[in-house]
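Figure S7 source data.
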Amino acid sequence: MAQVRIKNIKKSYGNHVALKGINLDIDSGAFFTLLGPSGCGKTTLLRAIAGFHQQDAGEIFVGEESIGHLSANKRNVGMVFQDYAVFPHLSVFDNVAFGLVQQKVPAAEIRQRVTDILATVQLDQHAERMPHQLSGGQQQRVGLARALVIRPKVLLMDEPLSNLDAKLRIDLRRDIRQVQQEFGITAIYVTHDQEEALSISDQVCVMFDGVAQQVDTPWAIYNRPENRFVASFVGANNFMAVDTTHTDSAQLLGQKFDAPAAIRNQANCVAAIRPEKVLVNRALTGNGLQVDGTLRQSMFTGRELQLLVDVAGHGVLEALTAPNETMMAVKIGDTVSVGLLAADILYYAEGETGKLLS
Ligand SMILES: Nc1ncnc2c1ncn2[C@@H]1O[C@H](COP(=O)(O)OP(=O)(O)OP(=O)(O)O)[C@@H](O)[C@H]1O
Ligand SMILES: [Mg+2]
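Tokens for the predicted adenosine-5'-triphosphate complex:
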């Protein structure tokens, strides 16, 4: 059952259209992420749900109730901001207790709930500290605890980890996911970090230019991007022109190949393959194509080996493999073979948001 339903939300700032009719159904207890580049409308959508500004058109439902007409403090929607927004003059405990005091919750219950939530976010040792005595990540957890302690039906988080270092981001995203699951909160989370979105979410909405491009599980977003924008924004991809001008067969990387029926009548389309699917100096184990290229770059990162292979006249392909000594021994400028399995290739229509064809 949908906990949050967003129907045809539109929002313009002057003559700039920031949201072009957004429709979303967010399940109860789901972790739902809005992912997209800067300026695509993520914060605008989140603020409309929170009630910080009015949309121009459309409706927002929480459960059965339309909340569009309610002011922000009547929506039972919590919000965690990017810039922490903790009160500098209040202790950790009082920061977290703030909303409960406002709601006139009895003092004994406040003490219990604040103590519990501080333990959950691992700040129970720091309850009496002032914000300036905390690290950025600890302040962020104060902000999170302050939103969670209210037990909102819906929790909105706008890039809550964006100011933190890489290690802390990963620790805190695990904490956020754990708390969200433990309390059964419906979370709507904003990020422009695609790995964070995939790892934390039940569902991801990829946004671009005020439009929801695809709403799907992380698995489907990565493995079956519905359009070219999603394919290029989430993870890396090699895009290759498909030549369909030959009457007898289509060509890819200068090779004839068995083109899927859906692209045979397309004048222009592009093929896409993930770097980890590009086989360098390896035998093809199924239907596909193989071509020689020149190794241009080889970078060992410890966990993997990143290769750039120039297929003369057809551009440079990125390949990602598990490191192995044989491949490490290949020199820049050497000839290598590049293999693509037909099953690993997706095809898109031309254009920035060209649709998945096959
Ligand atoms: N108050 C405003 N007045 C005019 N234009 C605005 C206003 N707020 C946002 N915009 C514009 O609307 C578009 C969407 O902005 P929004 O803040 O929703 O983007 P975002 O996806 O959150 O980006 P970021 O990742 O940079 O936070 C942008 O082009 C932005 O410049
Ligand atoms: Mg934003």
